[in-house]
């Protein structure tokens, strides 16, 4: 009975996650064709309330908020996916290589990982941006440098679990080489597990990028980015609350989508391993 409830919960979560994913994809690829130039100003219509012409209203410069939301989605989601892919690959290579080689290399590598994990990644990213200077490229680099260590730790955990499986031990006892066994029976499930973790982490990366952009460390105006949109709208929050609500809801939807899809993928992998 409990298993059925869990399966139903995951199925509902997967459906909601896919629906949110469709909305986000439409926001990136469809909405820009239906909305005006996100940087086009019209001071005669500044701070206009949501209407049929401007579904999410306009900002302090008369720019269409929906158009800027779509433009910001391309930057926020694109940067988050790039950061997630690079940190996943870095963590996978470092974690797997150190674990499979073992010995002093593994010990030294994971001492470095422990040090990196001891500092909250947003604090570390903030320090790196402070050294490199503000800007989207530097912000992405900072998030990559700050975000690879958890993936290395996860890769080590998953790889060790794979190496301890009975059929892997049996293959090694039968004379199969460690690297050959690892390439067939350890690396593929480790990669799949890390993909689930990375999917869960995309929302966190979006949140981190938006938070640092909110502090003025990301893109510079008038470029649209969700965190930057919130920063620009603080002065007008009482007069035009939609300016904060719209990008805020976009961030929440992205985090929810990533969490639900990652949870569903993780549950599917758990069911496969149990089966």
Q: Would you identify the CATH H-level superfamily?
A: MetI-like
Number of domains: 1
Shape assignment: elongated
Highest CATH level, the class: Mainly Alpha
Radius of gyration from the alpha-carbon trace, in angstroms:
22 Å
DSSP strand (E) fraction? Answer: under 5%
Give the helices and strands, then pairings:
Layout: H1 2-29, H2 31-34, H3 65-101, H4 103-118, H5 121-132, H6 136-163, H7 166-173, H8 178-214, H9 226-233, H10 242-274
Plain-language structure description:
The chain has 275 residues and is mainly α. The protein has a single domain (10-36, 57-274), classed as MetI-like fold (Orthogonal Bundle). It contains ten helices and no strands. It has helices at 2-29, 31-34, 65-101, 103-118, 121-132, 136-163, 166-173, 178-214, 226-233, 242-274. Helix 1 (2-29) packs across helix 10 and helix 4 crosses helix 6 (136-163). The longest helix is centred in the N-terminal third of the chain and has 37 residues, at 65-101. The mean pLDDT is 87.
């Amino acid at each position: 009975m409990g298993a059925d409830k869990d399966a139903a919960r995951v199925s509902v979560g997967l459906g909601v996650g896919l629906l949110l994913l469709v909305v986000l994809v439409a926001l990136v690829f469809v909405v820009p064709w239906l909305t005006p130039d996100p940087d086009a100003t019209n001071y005669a219509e500044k701070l206009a309330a949501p209407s049929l012409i401007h579904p999410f209203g306009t900002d302090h410069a008369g720019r269409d908020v929906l158009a800027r939301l779509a433009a910001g989605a391309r930057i926020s989601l694109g940067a988050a996916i790039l950061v997630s892919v690079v940190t996943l690959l870095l963590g996978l290579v470092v974690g797997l290589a150190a674990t499979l080689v073992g010995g002093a290399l593994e010990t030294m590598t994971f001492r470095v990982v422990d040090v990196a994990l001891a500092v909250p990644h947003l604090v570390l990213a903030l320090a790196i941006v402070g050294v490199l200077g503000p800007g989207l490229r530097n912000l992405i680099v900072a998030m990559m440098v700050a975000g690879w260590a958890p993936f290395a730790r996860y890769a080590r955990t998953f790889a060790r679990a794979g190496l301890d499986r009975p059929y892997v031990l049996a293959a090694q006892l039968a004379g199969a080489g460690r690297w050959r066994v690892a390439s067939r029976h350890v690396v593929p499930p480790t990669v799949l597990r890390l993909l689930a973790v990375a999917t869960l982490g995309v929302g966190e990366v979006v949140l981190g990028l938006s938070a640092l952009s909110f502090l003025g460390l990301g893109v510079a105006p008038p470029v649209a980015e969700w965190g930057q949109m919130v920063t620009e709208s603080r002065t007008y929050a009482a007069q035009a609350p939609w300016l904060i609500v719209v990008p805020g809801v976009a961030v929440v939807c992205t985090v929810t989508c990533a969490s639900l899809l990652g949870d569903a993928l993780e549950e599917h992998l758990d069911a496969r391993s149990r089966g």
